[in-house]
Amino acid sequence: MLEIGPGTGQATVPMAERGFNVTAIELGPNLAAVARRKLARFPPAAVVEGAFEDWPLPAEPFDAVVCATAFHWLDQSVRVTKAADALRPAGVLATIATHHIAGGDGQFFLDAQDCYRRWFDDNVDVRLPSGAEVPRDSNELEESGRFEPATFRRYEWEATYSTQQYVDLLSTYSDHRALAATQRRRLFECIARLIDQRYGGRIRKRYLNELRIAQRR
After folding, report:
1. From 3.40.50.150, 3.40.5.60, 3.30.930.10, 3.40.190.10, which CATH number describes the 57-215 domain?
2. Domain ranges of the chain
């Protein structure tokens, strides 16, 4: 099995525990080092540091290519065809996507728009779709001609965050990290005040995890 973008190995370790031979390719050297430490007790698991787009595929094809929440970051002109090239005939490409959806403390996300308009973008709209409104997207797989029609599995769930936990979560989002330091600090302060003053220091957020599976032709 080939895993693209394992990060710290959050999904890799459970796969290794189930006895899969995993080769995981990770772009970030620090993340790769963490993943290696976590996988040290699994000799069949290996972490390769580098970009999937540039990595020379081994001669032996894989039964599966797996990518959890990182597929959209890969070069769109390469990711589907190279994933197909990495697979044996009838091997599967499995991608996992996480969507932010309506639910939990829905009013909080409406109230938070004031913070985003002030410190993020005057025209921003952070209203969230329902799970049913999130489209099932397999166009690039179909257009490549390399895969059979995809199947989908979807799971909705909620997480509860304290004020600090939610601010810490926001600080991992790439678009928030791209803000100027002062602007980002003001945005986080605004959101933290909102959670503390109107929501008792704790909010619930709803997610949709989507597993997309397609078999190589």
Report:
1. 3.40.50.150
2. 57-215
- The CB-side HSE value for 56 (13 A sphere, CA atoms) comes to 2
- Tell me the Cα Rg of the chain: 20
The Cα–Cα gap between 196 and 144 comes to: 49
H-type alpha helices, 3-147: 12-17, 29-38, 79-86, 106-111, 113-119, 139-144
Stated length of the chain:
217
- From residue 137, alpha-carbon distances to 34, 72, 83, 99, 182 in Å are 32, 12, 17, 13, 37
Q: Which long-range contacts (CB under 8 A, 24 or more apart) does 194-200 make?
A: 194/108, 194/111, 194/112, 194/115, 195/108, 195/163, 195/166, 196/163, 198/108, 198/111, 199/105, 199/108
Please report, in tens digits, the pLDDT of each residue of the chain (217 residues total).
999 999 999 999 999 999 999 999 999 999 999 999 999 999 999 999 999 999 999 999 999 999 999 999 999 999 999 999 999 999 999 999 999 999 999 999 999 999 999 999 877 776 789 999 999 999 999 999 999 999 999 999 999 999 999 999 999 888 899 999 999 999 999 999 999 999 999 999 999 999 999 999 9
- d(CA 108, CA 22) in angstroms, rounded, equals 41
